[in-house]
Amino acid sequence: MRLNVAVIFGGRSTEHEVSIISALQTIENMDNEKYNVIPLYVDKKGDFYFSKENLLIDSKNYKDIKSLLSSCTNVYFVKEKNNTYIRSVSSGFFGSSINQVIDVAFPVVHGTNVEDGNLQGFLHTLNLPVVGPDVLAAGVSMDKYVMKEYVKSLGIPVIDAVRIDKNDYDDIDKLVSMLESKIGYPMIVKPVNLGSSIGIKKAKDKESLRDALDLAFSFASIVLVEKAIENLREINCAVLGDKFDAITSALEEPFGNDEILSFADKYMSGGKGGKVSNGSKMGKGTKSVGVGAKSGMASLKRKIPADIDEKIGEEIKKYAKDIFKYLGCTGVSRIDFIIDKDTNHIYANEINPIPGSLSYYLFEPMGIKYKELIDRLISIALDNYKREERLEFTFRNNLLQ
Q1: Is the bond preceding residue 353 a cis peptide, omega within 30 degrees?
Q2: Are 252 and 313 contacting, i.e. CB atoms less than 8 angstroms apart?
Q3: Domain 141-157+231-386 belongs to what topology?
Q4: What average pLDDT does the chain have?
Q5: Phi/psi-derived region of residue 65, left when phi > 0, alpha when psi is between -120 and 50, beta in every other case
Q6: Residue 355: what pLDDT?
Q7: Interatomic CA distance for residues 64 and 56, integer angstroms
Q8: 203-207, 262-266, 299-303, 393-397: the lowest-pLDDT one
Q9: How far apart are CA 388 and CA 30, in angstroms?
Q10: CATH of domain 3-130
Q11: Three-state SS at 152
Q12: Which one of 90, 185, 261, 280 is at 20 to 30 Å from 377 when CA atoms are compared?
């Protein structure tokens, strides 16, 4: 009997479109003999939609979302006894009536309101197995400042940062002066809880610092400012598993990373065609898979495996696994590291609790294909659900009696 797996994507997030790309990749690679895939699109207002006609799995339909949703059914979750269903909000005279049981929730989401624990908490109240991080792991991972504090307590190096909020921003002259004194140029300014390089900018002087603060505060009420490492390498490592057992992926080094990779670099720069062959102008082992709008993070030009010293590579993998387990991450996460080429120091930079494209391309070199990665993620969610079922969450006695 096939499992009914609700793949949830979209949402009230600046990374809404990135989530659509990742989710459609995931759906395309799910084993239809094992899973009855139920795509659930969340629009930018937070409403859930389902289509019996499979309209939600065709990327071309998202060019006109208003038209797409007019042909879909607005649904909601409801829990009844031991089952959880999605049901149509209103079928109408000609509308479609939906009453579909859900066995597993599979959020493939990115950014605020969906990747940061909000959606995960909602799904857990429905007593569903949920693929990916729980509320705490998602929240800590997505808050760049809190993440740094957790990682520092593990003894793993991070780049020290200053956390500022809208109140500090009210006196811009005082804020700029404080940052110049405390950090000094060049600085990196970023929203505290966004991914995909949205709202991030390097500041090299007073004018560019003001611009960077303006940009970051247009996306978030809390902003992080840290010292920029000028001569750097970015090395990323994904981890698959849970706090009980986890494995690390191959390491990757994105190209052009001596500067900050923008949203366009990550998702809109992919060339036509599949993998670049070895010996091409881009170098041996380099990949540029597909077109960015279809391939998500897989379209970014990168070297896999990263060409780094074996000892440094093993240290990064150990750091990645330690961080993953310490934060209680579940499923697949990607931990991004920075190496200061002048000193060879390694710094943990960011954690992506639900990485773009689920980082499938980092597990393929290890012999784990996308389909198998999905199977493992669902199995981990089911195992953790069974563990939680054995715990007591309520008192047996009614104190009000």
Answers
A1: no
A2: no
A3: D-amino Acid Aminotransferase; Chain A, domain 1 (3.30.470)
A4: 88
A5: alpha
A6: 96
A7: 12
A8: 262-266
A9: 26
A10: 3.40.50.20
A11: helix
A12: 261
